[in-house]
């Protein structure tokens, strides 16, 4: 099995076969990410002495995320009910910044020229009043062909009640040379704006994702490939290609999956995860089960789908540091990525957080990427000197200031993440990983008042390791809008059984379970709200679901209304098949460095401080070391400041605690 996580800066590879572990980091290529994945597969096959076709690939990708964040994608059209072509532009009237006198409108996924209306109407009870005519559909085909459309999103009113009209149009359009998806497939729930937006975005990114995933299917028939979803579960290539929107938080979700498994192995019931990579920082609350959210958004656009509950910051090792127009320091959101990369790589023209970590000694130049890359520290130093001159500060004080700015931003986001669940972050251990996680996690913990930070073995490749530990999952929701006072438990159970059968049929049809049907379990949920609310809470279906909803509402929002009418908005069924392999370790020794320094200096609080430097591969199990110290390996560096002590446990995880 090979887990390959494609990030904005690096592509991480972790392979496991019969007790042998191989891992490496490769520079990502935004122009051809699939080529790097195939290179990782070839490297793993060579290291494990296995044919490439015998390797089972589990893949996480940020391709869909990047397309949405950058406003890119294919030339897509919207086909909708007559009179509702402007719904995407009207959007919701909610304002994310209530007191902004000039609020920016949410971007429109499909431009007006490519939004086409069809005379049809399905009523809110599912009755079809008007069906689309053959003549209208023939005219539509001609217009789409003339516009050079690559993908079509078919979105009709009330199709979640009865998808017949959408299916009829899709059947005609699928004869053309474009990808077609319907809102009743992508998000079969009510609230037209969210449903239309999700379907439009799914159409826009589908051709690019299908092209990328198609490259991974060149191996012989039967060579299995899985794709990580935003929910923290795997799905088949076929399903990911049809519903690419489910991959938007693919990589970060794999990291949370790995953190959950690590927390369980260490006996931690709750923790906070900090994934500081090359492009972004992803934060999450880690509990016994994955904490999911139904309000996934990318930028200002709602995706409407369920995802791991993450807070994402545009801060990473590749984030560009600069001054804003007012002369104040700014980090990100722009990133140097893999190309050109940080200034010290010899190609970049702009200063990044990685450059500052190198210049202040937190990331020794001699150990960067295992010492296989020569860094141009003078180039980065010249850029820092120019930037510090503009701010009127000394270069190293400027560098420390930027590091503190990053750490404060992460600290504040972690406070919000934990407070939203009624938790004090000072009482929670921090699980830190990602290529830059070890450089900043302990200062973040100090600012939080936390006393324990866990650095996993292979922390610089942790999301790729999470891919190997993930379950295969799928989910299906359906809007019902029921009043529990007028419906019995038996009827709810029957409706959920029908939804479960529908999901089981879909999974068998697209081979998502690959023979694991017998081990698959199905979980049932209800999306509920108080009458008049515009947001729902998801609770497990049980005999006490009403009491559970009131308790969850109080936990999440600080109050409950037991006497208020409750509504069941959506039914939801989740299929969960066992992980592709069991018994995978969370630990693996890093590759020893060729010439790690015994001592190194780190600039902090206006002075250079001598630090003990240890190669993580040489740490004995149970060995401890007191700060100030640096623990280095080929994928990351871990800063242990004065007043903290690190201890390597039996699995090779480094537990750093305040003394």
List keywords for this structure.
659 residues, alpha+beta, Nucleotidyltransferase, domain 5, Rossmann fold, 5 domains, eight-stranded mixed sheet, six-stranded mixed sheet, 26% strand
In short:
The protein has about 650 residues and is α+β, with helices and mostly antiparallel strands. Helices cover about 30% and strands about 25% of the residues.
Describe the structure.
- With 659 residues, the protein is an alpha+beta fold.
- Helices cover 31% and strands 26% of the residues.
- It folds into 5 domains: 105 residues, 2-Layer Sandwich (Nucleotidyltransferase, domain 5); 118 residues, Rossmann fold; 218 residues, Nucleotidyltransferase, domain 5 (2-Layer Sandwich), CATH 3.30.420; 106 residues, no CATH class; 60 residues, no CATH class.
- The chain is built from 16 helices and 34 strands.
- The strands form 9 sheets. An 8-stranded mixed sheet has the order 19-14-13-22-23-34-33-30, sandwiched between helices. Strands 3-2-1-4-11-12 form a 6-stranded mixed sheet, sandwiched between helices. The protein has a 4-stranded parallel sheet with strand order 6-5-9-10, with helices on both faces.
- The protein is globular and about 80 Å long.
* Radius of gyration of CA atoms, rounded to a whole number: 26 Å
CATH architecture of the largest domain: 2-Layer Sandwich
Low-pLDDT runs: none
Total strands: the figure is 34
What's the assembly state of these chains?
Answer: single chain
Instruction: Compute the separation of the termini in Å.
Output: 40 Å
Helix content: 25-40%
Strand content: 25-35%
CATH C-level of the largest domain: Alpha Beta
Shape, please?
globular
SS-derived structural category: alpha+beta
Please state how the strands of the largest beta sheet are arranged side by side: 19-14-13-22-23-34-33-30
């Amino acid at each position: 099995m090979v887990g390959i996580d494609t990030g904005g800066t690096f592509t991480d590879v972790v392979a496991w076969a019969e007790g042998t572990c191989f891992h490496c980091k490769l520079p990502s290529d935004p122009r051809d990410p699939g080529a790097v994945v195939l290179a990782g597969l070839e490297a793993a096959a060579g290291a494990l002495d296995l044919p490439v076709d015998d390797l089972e690939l589990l893949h996480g990708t940020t391709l869909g995320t990047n397309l949405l964040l950058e406003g890119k994608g294919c030339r897509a059209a919207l086909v909708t009910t007559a009179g509702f072509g402007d719904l995407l532009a009207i959007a919701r009237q909610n304002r994310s910044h209530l007191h902004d006198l000039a609020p920016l409108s949410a971007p429109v996924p499909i431009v007006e020229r490519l939004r086409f209306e069809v005379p049809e109407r399905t009523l809110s009870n599912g009755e079809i009043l008007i069906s689309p005519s053959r003549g209208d559909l023939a005219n539509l085909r001609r217009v789409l062909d003339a516009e050079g459309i690559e993908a079509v999103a078919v979105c009709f009113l009330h199709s979640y009640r009865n998808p017949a009209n959408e299916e009829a149009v899709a059947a005609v359009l699928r004869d053309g040379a474009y990808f077609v998806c319907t809102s009743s497939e992508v998000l079969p729930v009510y609230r037209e704006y969210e449903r239309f937006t999700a379907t439009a975005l799914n159409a826009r990114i589908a051709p690019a994702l299908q092209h990328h995933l198609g490259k991974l299917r060149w191996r012989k028939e039967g060579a299995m490939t899985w794709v990580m979803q935003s929910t923290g579960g795997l799905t088949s290539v076929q399903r990911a290609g049809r519903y690419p929107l489910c991959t938007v938080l693919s990589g970060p979700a794999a990291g949370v999956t790995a953190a959950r498994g690590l927390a369980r192995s260490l006996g931690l019931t709750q923790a906070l995860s900090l994934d500081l990579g090359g492009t972004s920082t992803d934060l999450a609350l880690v509990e016994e089960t994955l904490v999911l959210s139904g309000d996934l958004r990318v930028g200002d656009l709602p995706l409407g789908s369920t995802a791991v509950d993450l807070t994402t910051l545009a801060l990473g090792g590749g984030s560009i540091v600069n001054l804003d127009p007012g002369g104040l320091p700014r980090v990100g959101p722009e990133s140097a990525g893999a190309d050109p990369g940080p200034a010290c790589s010899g190609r970049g023209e702009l200063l990044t957080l990685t450059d500052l970590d190198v210049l202040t000694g937190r990331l020794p130049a001699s150990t960067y990427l295992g010492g296989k890359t020569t860094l141009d520290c003078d180039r980065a130093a010249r850029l820092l000197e120019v930037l510090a001159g503009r701010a009127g500060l000394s270069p190293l004080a400027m560098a420390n200031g930027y590091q503190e700015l990053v750490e404060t931003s992460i600290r504040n986001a972690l406070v919000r993440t934990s407070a939203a669940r009624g938790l004090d972050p000072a009482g929670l251990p921090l699980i830190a990983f990602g290529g830059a996680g070890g450089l900043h996690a302990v200062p973040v913990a100090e600012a939080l008042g936390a006393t324990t930070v866990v650095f996993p073995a292979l922390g610089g490749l942790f999301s790729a390791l999470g891919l190997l530990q993930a379950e295969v999952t799928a989910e299906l929701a359906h809007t019902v809008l029921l009043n529990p006072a007028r419906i019995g438990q038996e009827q709810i159970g029957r409706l959920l059984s029908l939804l479960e059968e529908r999901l089981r049929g879909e999974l068998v049809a697209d081979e998502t379970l690959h023979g694991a049907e017998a081990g698959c379990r199905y979980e049932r949920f209800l999306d509920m709200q108080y009458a008049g609310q515009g947001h729902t809470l998801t609770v497990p279906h049980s005999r006490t679901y009403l009491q559970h909803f009131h308790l969850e509402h109080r936990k999440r929002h600080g109050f409950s209304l037991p006497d208020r009418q409750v509504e069941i908005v959506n039914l939801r069924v989740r299929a969960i098949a066992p992980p592709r392999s069991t018994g995978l370790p969370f630990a693996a020794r890093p590759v020893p460095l060729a010439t790690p320094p015994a001592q190194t200096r780190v600039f902090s609080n206006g002075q250079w401080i001598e630090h003990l430097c240890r190669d993580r591969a040489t740490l004995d199990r149970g060995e401890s070391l007191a700060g100030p110290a640096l623990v280095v390996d080929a994928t990351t560096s871990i800063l242990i400041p004065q007043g903290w002590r690190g201890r390597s446990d039996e699995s090779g995880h480094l537990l750093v605690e305040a003394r």
